[in-house]
Every structure is written in C-alpha cells, then in structure tokens.
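Course assignment 3, question 2. Fill in each field.
Student: A.L.
Task: Predict the tertiary structure for the chain below.
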Amino acid sequence: MRSTVTDRSFVPSTLGIGGLETKAGNRLHGGAIRKGIHPYGAARGGPMELQCPNCKSTDLKKVSLAYQEGFQRIRTRTRLRGVVLGPDGPDVVVGRATTKGIQQTEMSKALSPPKKWSYIKLFGRSALVFLSVGWIVFYVNTVTKNSSSVASAPLMAYSLLSAGVFVLLLLIYGKHNHLTYPGQYARWNRSFICQRCGAVSQG
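Answer field:
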C-alpha cells in the first residue's frame, strides 16, 4: 500500500558525501523563489519581470528611450512693434522673428550614450600643440642664442618626440574606438532606468 504525502512544502535536504554537507534547494543563493518567477528569469511560457535592484520597483524604462524623449524641438514666433521718430514724424515699425532649435533636458544629458573619440579633434589639437611648442623651441634656440641654423638639435629632438607621442595617441584612440567603445555602447543599450528612484541598472 502506497503512502500519500500531503505536505508539499519544499524543505531542503542535507546529504553527506565524504564528510561534506551539500544542500539541495533553489539556486538563488538560499533565497526563496517568488511565486510565478522562474529561477533563471521569466516563468516558462510567461514574460520576464524586471525589477530595480535599488527599490524593487517594476516601473522601468530603457535608457535609450529616456535619452531620446529628452529632446524637444522648439519653434517660437515673436512679433515686434515699435515707434520710430524720423524727420517726417513718428512711424510705427512692425517686425516678426522665428526662433528654431532643439532643447535637451538634464536627465537626457546624464543618460547620453558613450561616444567614439574623434580623430579630427586629435589631429587638430596635436597640430596646435606641435606648432605652439615648436615655435617656443625655435625661438629659444634661434633668437635668444643667435643661432643661424634653423634645423637645430633641440628642434629635431622635439619633432621626433612629438611624432612618437602622436603615434601613441593614435594607438590609444584606435583601441578605444574598436575595443572599448562597442562594449560600452552595448551595456548602455541594454540598461534601464527606474522611474521611481532614478537608479540605472542593466537588463
């Protein structure tokens, strides 16, 4: 005759293997599994429920969507009226002005996506620094020392050093744009912001 178990409550069992104790239970580090939630995300056949890790709220929005919603197009029209005194007496002047632009909220600015480093800015800043410092080296070596040679040893050394630094910066920029940036953008694209406490988490 088979016995029927009426108590269906889950009780972790303890097994001894070679002097070690192992506990059978859920896999959420000993935490209880909530009703209707699968241990690895959504319940099988049901939608996944995301929660804020800070306040446990489910009112979440994608960071990319919140960033786009922070932009607002502005178009205003202004009508001007004035009185001008001339040789023929007072005259009324009427004018109109239209202002167009895009306004971005502070929240949208804080949620801006990561950007690639600009090679154009690198070239421009490098050229500016090279010419500025190069002129100082040239002035000190040629004018103050009354040297007739333009291609002096300090100027050549500075040119070689600048070229080496520029190549190093190119390598750093390339590493960031091709290796670091894709991972940063992927994390930003799958992030969510809590509508209650403002915490940002990854989905």
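Instructor remarks: Confidence is low (pLDDT under 50) at residues 1-43. The radius of gyration is 34 Å.
Grade: pending
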